[in-house]
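Design job #97: recover the sequence.
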């Protein structure tokens, strides 16, 4: 049993406006008892336009829910229309920034090099990256899922000092399981999460690898989370669709009660 605190993070993607966000976070706060946060860290990753509202609610009511952004610019400021910078997210007291989500890689052409720059930008401003990696269906069918995913890890972590890397969160999200209802088996999740941890030990050292939290993501719901969390190298989940339903998300957070 590791002493890593599981992180259950709800990635809302492009859902819930700022008014809906307030109602949603209030529901979560109401449903989660203080003791829930002792064993599991709970975070929401709303759209940028919701962050100020979520911050105000979390600060005002001293909620233990953490929050973060779904992306971060590699640049601090300047002529980058549409981008949101690390200093802006830090000002909103974001704990996390998701980096390299498969939808960013697929629709916005984000490469491992871009992810690497974004990981460094996040750390520069005291924000913890949730680095997303994982293979598509063709790669999985070809049996190349482990080397493919490890290459993404290598690229995103290039030249990242150990004192930063030790706090990173890595989310293994097989693309074929995202939003499809087709969840990877707990064994699939363990295979790749364990390979990522071994790679961290090679890139840095075993102590660091043992500290890093590695999440699974892809069609996680209350019905399958307990089996996934039973695997030794899985330290939480990055939850998409099921995070939009407050009751379902709370059940996922309470996976130990099942
Ligand atoms: O970031 C979350 C993942 O893309 C998983 O999404 P999903 O739970 O809807 O499959």
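Job complete. Output follows.
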């Amino acid at each position: 049993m590791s002493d890593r605190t599981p992180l259950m993070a709800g990635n809302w993607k492009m859902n819930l406006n700022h008014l809906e966000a307030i109602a949603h976070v209030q529901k979560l706060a109401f449903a989660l008892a203080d003791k829930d946060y002792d064993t599991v860290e709970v975070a929401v990753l709303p759209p940028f336009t919701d962050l100020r509202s979520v911050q105000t609610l979390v600060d005002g009511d001293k909620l233990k829910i953490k929050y973060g952004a779904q992306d971060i610019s590699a640049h601090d400021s300047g002529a980058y229309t549409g981008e949101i910078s690390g200093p802006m997210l830090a000002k909103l007291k974001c704990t996390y920034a998701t980096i390299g989500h498969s939808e960013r890689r697929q629709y916005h052409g984000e490469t491992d090099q871009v992810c690497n720059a974004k990981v460094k930008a996040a750390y520069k401003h005291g924000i913890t990256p949730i680095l997303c990696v994982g293979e598509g269906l063709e790669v999985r069918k070809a049996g190349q899922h482990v080397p493919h995913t490890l290459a993404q890890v290598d690229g995103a972590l290039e030249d990242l000092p150990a004192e930063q890397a030790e706090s990173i969160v890595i989310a293994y999200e097989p693309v074929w399981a995202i939003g499809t209802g087709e969840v990877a088996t707990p064994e699939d999740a363990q295979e790749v999460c364990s390979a990522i941890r071994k790679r961290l030990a090679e890139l840095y050292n075993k102590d660091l690898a043992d500290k890093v939290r590695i999440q699974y993501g892809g069609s996680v719901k209350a019905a399958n989370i307990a089996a996934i969390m039973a695997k030794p190298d899985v330290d939480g989940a990055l939850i998409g669709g099921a995070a939009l339903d407050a009751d379902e998300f709370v059940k996922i957070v309470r996976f130990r009660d099942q």
